[in-house]
Write a structure and sequence with these properties.
Helices cover 0% and strands 41% of the residues. By secondary structure, it is mainly β.
Length: 92
């Protein structure tokens, strides 16, 4: 994440919501949820679940240079469009 309370942390993107430009990242933006007991005799519990984060506050990490970077595009001779890292120009 680039900014917010979890700035500098890394995580895997679990879900993408394109209609409102949000993503859910594993282990980031955790909030506590109170769960009621489902069966009689079972205790209620408090769990932490990840919430949606604005997509503009996260950045992709290049697998080659292991740094945060922007995504660029390269068009090959065959007409194929490939995503590349803007820093090291490796294919993502």
């Amino acid at each position: 994440m680039v900014r917010g309370k979890d700035a500098g942390k890394k995580g895997k993107v679990l879900d993408v919501f394109t209609e409102n430009n949000k993503v859910v990242v594993e282990g980031l933006n955790l909030v506590k949820r109170h769960l009621r007991p489902k069966k009689q005799g079972q205790k209620g519990q408090i769990i932490e679940v990840p919430r949606k984060v604005d997509a503009s506050s996260v950045q992709i990490i290049c697998s080659k240079c292991n740094k945060k970077s922007r995504v660029g595009y390269l068009i090959k001779e065959s007409g194929e469009k490939v995503r590349i890292c803007k820093k090291c120009e490796a294919q993502i």
